[in-house]
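User: Here's a chain of 79 residues. Predict its fold as tokens.
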Amino acid sequence: MEYLNFSAYKRIAKLVPDIHENFPGRQADLQVELATLNALRNCVAHPAKALTAEFEALELGRLTQLAEDFNANLRDAQG
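Assistant: Prediction complete.
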């Protein structure tokens, strides 16, 4: 997860239909969820404190699954 750049997805989401089409959550939540995934990615890539200091345990599980599903969907869409 540390190599994923969700902030880039957030910036280009309006220009790349595959991002919207393959997002496994509600379309209305896409921008907020990408920002939250990017915050999680930053915590993983630059650990300064426990993840649970920033996110609740259940939210960590949900975000991790969301990221995995989103990336799997994008990979599958590319062939």
